[in-house]
Design brief:
Layout: H1 16-21, E1 30-33, H2 40-49, E2 54-59, H3 62-74, E3 80-84, E4 100-106, H4 115-125, E5 126-137, H5 154-163, E6 166-171, E7 178-185
């Protein structure tokens, strides 16, 4: 069973503002949250890019996209576009090639079956020298996170994404239960 965190716990558990701050997202940027869920990171990115920027929130679950859009509108965020899609296949996010300044894959890699496709899709949507923010669980934490057999270590993720063409991995803050990386598209 996967435990889903409460957004009110963000300061002590996982803080998307701090994590995305390490990516130096600027006003007017184009960001893709590739496995957006309810938009924990997408909404933080929308605040970071400001009204001149745009965030595409991708998720295969239409119910999550409706929830995300309602939360965003309720928070006054009108710069999020929701798209039903997946990182499980190349081109399945429906985003154009090489158009995003930043891509986010947060709290999702452990649940992605085709991890190579996810790495390739992140690479495809990023512009040259674009940045990928990658965050996932450090462990199962006694049932707090994913099943122990689904945990993807930071070292495994580095190897996977470097094989897809990413370089310069840099550690970023991701809370007590997660690891975080920024990787650049070569």
């Amino acid at each position: 069973m996967i435990w889903h965190y409460n957004e009110g716990m963000e300061s002590s558990f996982l803080n998307p503002q701090a994590t995305l701050g390490a990516a130096h997202i600027s006003q007017g940027s184009r960001v893709a949250d590739l496995c957006a869920g309810s938009g924990f990171f997408a909404r933080a990115a929308a605040r970071a890019v400001g009204p001149e920027g745009l965030v595409w929130a991708i998720d295969p679950n239409p119910d999550m996209l409706v929830r995300l859009k309602n939360l965003a509108v309720g928070e006054g965020l009108h710069n999020i576009e929701v798209v039903r899609g997946t990182v499980e296949k190349v081109n399945a996010t429906k985003l154009p090639d090489a158009t995003m300044d930043v891509a986010i894959l947060a709290n999702a890699l452990f649940g992605v079956e085709n991890k190579e496709a996810a790495a390739a899709e992140a690479y495809r949507v990023l512009r040259k020298a674009g940045r990928l923010v990658l965050v996932d669980w450090t462990d199962s934490h006694g049932g707090l996170g994913p099943h122990p057999g689904h945990v993807v270590t930071q070292a495994q993720a580095k190897k996977l994404f470097e094989a897809a063409g990413f370089a310069q991995p840099e550690d970023i803050p991701a809370g007590a239960y997660h690891w975080g990386l920024i990787l650049r598209k070569r």
